[in-house]
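re: ur question from earlier - yeah i can do the single chain one, its not a big deal. heres the input i used so u can compare w yours
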Amino acid sequence: MSIHPSAIISDKAKLGKDVVVGPYVVIRGETVIGDGVIIDSFATVGSDYSYTEIGAGSRLYPGAVIGETPQDLKYKGERTSCILGKENMIREYVTIHAGTPTGGGITKMGDRCLIMAYSHVAHDCQLGTDVIIANATQLAGHVEIEDHVKIGGGCLLNQFIRLGTHSYIAGDSSINKDILPFAIAQGKYAVMRAANQIGMDRSGYDKAEIEHVKRALRIITKGGLRVEEALARVEQECESFPSVKHLLDFARKSERGIAI
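and the output i got, formated as tokens:
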């Protein structure tokens, strides 16, 4: 373990093996730092109110702020959480805030995510595994992002929206409705343009499954049907691959509506 003498560490904090804490780092409150975590200079982890956890093998770059209290006027100092999984890379000046009591009380991230500089992940967001968020992207509260999602730089995501697995959001987009799994979306406000065929291929999906996902997305986005009619047609015309089933289930659970 290597702790710079200028770092300030709460007596409630627990640090794992081989942790590196750089100059002027502040670790506050009840915080758990996993094995092999590197926290670079001027980063702040935790708060006096929340529980914060950083998974093993992660790295926080200079100026990152993780587990700070939420930017929500309803929040009155209740104990909530911010939990990050393993091997995440949190780049310079990223802010990730703890949850709120009314939003489930937890902001959570899976493993192997890359959050690039100046991005913000607000209270009660739920991020999956292998998510990449490019620079200066801003997530409002309660956003849900499934595994393997890629978001370009400078995007703005409204509260309560959902991004399905393997979706791809083009840079400089604004999202106010749900993006279906395996879709590429772009615009202000963004709409789904095509299937993320390249992303699926790189992740090992076979050609037949990719073709049926493409057909399903075309029916929903280009078919001129009401959403319920489009989903029924997908069930009739597309094979029931796991990806197609997940797409249908995701769409039927949408509360904000689908970005068509």
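The chain has four helices and 28 strands. not sure if urs matches, ping me
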